[in-house]
Predict the 3D structure of the following.
Amino acid sequence: MTTREQVLDALVTRLQTITTANGYTLNIGLVKRSIRMHLLYENAYPAIQIEDGSTETIEYKTGGLADIYFTAKLSVWVRSRTSMSESMNAVDLAIKKAIATDATLGGLVAHATIQGEVDKDLTGDDDIAKFIRPIRIFYEGQYTEGM
């Protein structure tokens, strides 16, 4: 498994801690790297799909080390029968708190940070909406000269 895959798996684990038992105001229903759409119809809301959102940016340093950056894209589905905006904001706030609580993802990366604004899509079912939350990942890696 590549470091990048390990980072995405660690992000899944981190976001799975969003539960009322851990002090959050809501429970995340489902966090996966791949979500089959039929699972969303089994009331697993809010649901988060973590995708590999960008190619790596590599800044080479001396001694065979490199700073590596990439963006993970969180697709978040929210169901609400009241205020969709409030529900989306509550989930986004929980995601921000979860990342800030362990920005190194258990020591695997130098830091993971919330990046930019969310991209909201309110065109789905009446009580279901989706938003995209980018997470910028930075870690140090090694490279071999001439490869």
In short: The domain at 3-142 is CATH 3.30.2000.10 (STM4215-like). The chain has a mean pLDDT of 86. DSSP finds three helices and seven strands in the chain. The chain has one domain: 3-142.
